[in-house]
Every structure is written in C-alpha cells, then in structure tokens.
Amino acid sequence: MFLVLLVYFLLSSTFVIGKAALAYSQPIFLIAVRMCLAGIILLAYLYIFNKKQLKFKKEDLGLFAQIILFHIYLSFVLEFLAYKYVSASKAAFMFNLSPFVTAIFAYMFFKERMTGRQWVGMLLGFAGTLPMLMGPGQAAEQATMHIGFLSLPEISLLGSVVAAAYGWIVMTKLVVDKHYSPIFVNGIGMLCGGFAAFITSFAFEAKPLLKCVSQSTTLNALEQTLGAPWFCCTTSDFLIFMGYVLLLILVANIIFYNSYGFLLKKYTPTFLSLVGLLCPLFTAFLGWVFLGEKVTWIFFVSLAVVLLGAYIFYKDELRGSTEQ
Q1: What was the pLDDT predicted at 41?
Q2: What is the rounded CA–CA span in Å between residue 93 and residue 108?
C-alpha cells in the first residue's frame, strides 16, 4: 500500500514541476522538448533491446495518427496552456474526471454497459466539478475570457481530459487488439507529437520561447547567432529548464508508467483508480509548499463529491467483476 501511495505522490509532483518549468519556457515549447526527448529515449530502448517491435502495419496509420493527435499533442498542449492561469491542484483535480470520461468512451466504442449505480456515480462525479468551476479562480484565470461560468483555461483543461481519455481508448486498440508494444506506441506518439508541438510553438507562441529568468543583460550565443529573440536565457536558466524537463520525463514517462505496470500485477485496476483520485490532495500539498498556492474550502467540497461518485461507480464495477 505504501508503494501505491508513493507512486501517486510522485505523479502528483509532475503538476507542480510542470507549472514551475513554465517560468523558464513557453508552454507548447516545453511540451515539444519533453515529448521529443521522451520519444527518443523510448524508441532508443527498443532499438537496443528489442528491434522486432520497431514496426507497424500501414492499415494502422490512422490509429497511430490518433495517438499522436489526442494521446500526446492535444492532451498535453491543452493542459500546459491552462497551467499559466490555474493552480496545480485545480489542474490535478480536473483530471479526476478521466475515469468517468473514459467510461463514456468505452460505452460508445466498446459497447460496455453501465449499471444504474454507475450512472449515478458518474453524474455525481461531474456534479462534483461544478463548485470548482463556478468558484473564484486565481487572479490570472479571472482575467481571461469566460463562456458562461467556464473560463478559457478551464475549457482547455476539460479538452485535455477528453483528449487524454480518448487517447487511452486508442492505445487499448493498438496494444490489446493490434498487439503493439506500449513502449513503441508511446515512443512514436511522443516523438511525432513533440515535433508537431515544435511547429506550433515556433509558429504561434510569443517569443522568446526560452525566457531569461535570472537578471542578466547578456544575450546568449544562440540568440546572437540567429539574430532574433527566439531564445533569451542564460546558461543557468537553460540548465534549470532542462532539469525540469528531465525530471518530468523521469517521474512521469519512466517511473510512473513502469511502476503502474508492476502494481497491476498486485492490485486491481479498480483499486489503483480509486487511490489515484487522491492525486489532487497530494498536488494541493505540494503546490502549497513549493509554489505558495492557496487551497480553498471549495476544493475539498468538490473533491469529496467526486470521491463519492467514484466510490459508487467503482464499487458496482468491482461487484460485477467479482460475480463473473
């Protein structure tokens, strides 16, 4: 049980690490660097240890394109765009909707039926988000455009949740039905999704892409060479930025995914999903300690309602799997 809590505590830290890294980089550029490096690492691993898995069939190109677009590009880009305006705990909280959104997609694509109690649990889960969405956000979020009671950062987060949930559905098709290695699928998705993020970043993001955080008037060599302020950072800024990127890759892309696979051999997916709903609490604590973010009572009310909905949903699911 301690290992399960530790793994999710590490996952929660990625919300805080990602938000801290944005002080040194534009959000899409950060995703581009992280995903390209992670994709290269995963594919290099297969090249060294299992070259046979480095292949795919032409008829599956559409599924791989969906992995690149939804599982990597949209899910991460939309998430990190919102980080500039919302707290790390709110971002983590919104991802508690992932199991419910995934269940809807499973119902649509795999015809998986849900019981009445599961529908009640799902509705409670969605209702639990309303206090957080309708409550006052950070000053930066309040200054953004709103559509109804939803701010653009909140809409971006919801889009990220939906894209990620659909991405996992496509991942299931490729790994379970098509028998591809998850390392290969993730490697292709991350590398190509990261490349797409690079194009988006250079075309649309504000310059400089790498920011000068430390107080220095000296331009770096790369900026002088290009003759344009694409990158305006000192050596120390660049090293700190890369440290955050490598830490994100280590914690999320390597430790979490591998540890989760190990835990599935010991615990049920239902149990792990329930424990995963504690991520916002861990993130709120880390955000308070490292970023000085405040957590209001609305956060805990919403979290309690979502946890109740998840308990009802998963309790019925666990009962069904036990009876089979």
Answers
A1: 93
A2: 25
